[in-house]
């Protein structure tokens, strides 16, 4: 209709998640991108998955015991570098509190 602003061009969630993946990689953080059902996920660490719908990123930052629900942070998808910096802060917190268990000696190839 004349006089109306053009509708925004939809952004591909998987492509947007790939930008976040690259920004995390530049920070030295490994991640994986998965897509489906109109969303993309960037798996970063145990308990740290970043969802993306093409317009924003969001991730769980904690638990609100009073309300009995998760607390989330979000960041606009048009700035994946800054979003990555925020995700790195959460990643650092989780690495300190959720260390991965040591694999058994036989899995590491150590002699028994």
Short description:
Helix content is 32%, strand content 30%. The protein has helices spanning 13-26, 80-97, 105-108, and strands spanning 32-36, 39-45, 48-52, 56-64, 69-76. A hairpin with a 3-residue loop joins strand 3 and strand 4.
Shape field = globular
Strand content: 25-35%
Q: Alpha-carbon distance between the termini?
A: 75 Å
| Low-pLDDT segments | none
> How are the strands of the biggest sheet laid out side by side?
1-2-3-4-5
Quantity of strands, as a count: 5
Number of helices: 3
SSE-based structural type: alpha+beta
Residue-averaged pLDDT, rounded? Answer: 87
Radius of gyration over C-alpha positions, nearest whole angstrom: 18 Å
Main beta sheet: 5 strands, antiparallel
Helical fraction equals 25-40%
Question: What's the SSE pattern?
Answer: HEEEEEHH
Oligomer: single chain
């Amino acid at each position: 209709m004349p006089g109306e602003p053009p509708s925004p061009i939809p952004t591909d969630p998987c492509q947007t998640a790939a930008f976040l993946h690259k920004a995390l990689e530049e920070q030295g953080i490994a991640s994986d991108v998965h897509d489906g059902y109109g969303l993309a996920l960037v798996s970063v660490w145990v308990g740290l998955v970043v969802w993306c719908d093409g317009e924003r990123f969001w991730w769980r930052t904690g638990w609100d015991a009073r309300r009995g629900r998760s607390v989330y942070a979000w960041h606009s998808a048009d700035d994946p570098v800054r979003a990555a910096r925020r995700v790195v802060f959460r990643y650092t917190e989780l690495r300190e509190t959720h260390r991965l268990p040591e694999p058994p000696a036989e899995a590491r190839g150590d002699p028994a």
